[in-house]
Amino acid sequence: GLERSFNMHNQAVLVKTPEQIAGIRKSSILAANTLQFAKKQIKAGMTSEELDDLIYEYITKHNGIPATLGYMNYPKSSCISINEVVCHGIPDQTAFKEGDIVKVDIATILDGYYGDNCATFSIGQISNEAQELIDITKRCLELGIDEVQPGQPLNNIGKAITNYAQFKQHSVVYEYAGHGVGCEFHEAPNVSHAALRIPGPIMQPGWVFTIEPMINTGVPKTMLNEADGWTVSTADGNLSAQFEHTILVTENGHEILTIPTEI
Length: 263
What we know:
By secondary structure, this protein is of the alpha+beta class. It is 26% helix and 24% strand. Strands 1, 2, 4 and 5 form a four-stranded antiparallel beta sheet that branches. Strands 3-12-11 form a three-stranded antiparallel beta sheet, with no helix packed on it. A three-stranded antiparallel beta sheet has the order 6-10-13, covered by helices on one side. A hairpin with a 6-residue loop joins strand 7 and strand 8 (187-191). The radius of gyration is 17 Å and the shape is globular.
């Protein structure tokens, strides 16, 4: 969530201690449980603000703090992005309607540690095009996660995502990226979902970062809403979907930290 305006290229990546990993794991489970809770609540006729209020209540009831709330003056407890909105949609009076696809991005702070995840939900019956986009985006995240191995270049993730999306004739948003997370909301490294020309840094055990591909049915380019300074939409008005997990690099592979315990 909220991966705008931070440049991590020169920062060293924090190798997390076992104690930090334990704290990040707890926060990530809270973020994942909150996303599951949101999935159960979301329905046609509900406004994005009503859903955001429920998300705030759920996180605070479980002793957490919404990471987005007040972050760089962001006013809400989640990002809720409908249809052509790619990311950073600010919850408001807009009601969800049959056929919408809705990205809900939830990040939590628990005991000072961060967890971050996102999923795209469908409202009632959606078009075949929208369902295909959701399926492709989910698969892009899985393929990206499969590349997380210590000793391998970080950009293997972006290559895997781009290869699959392009094979499926969809495009990858390159203007927003995944990011290190855990002790801060946004840390190094910058995790591109596009295939870069450089291999990027070599992944090390103890790194924690998000992979959060945003996949479009049309062009990859996005537009920022200058009026609110946050809302990002596809440049051509076509649909966009996103899925996100927080990932730990382990000694022999990876662990997805944003796995809910309440299903």
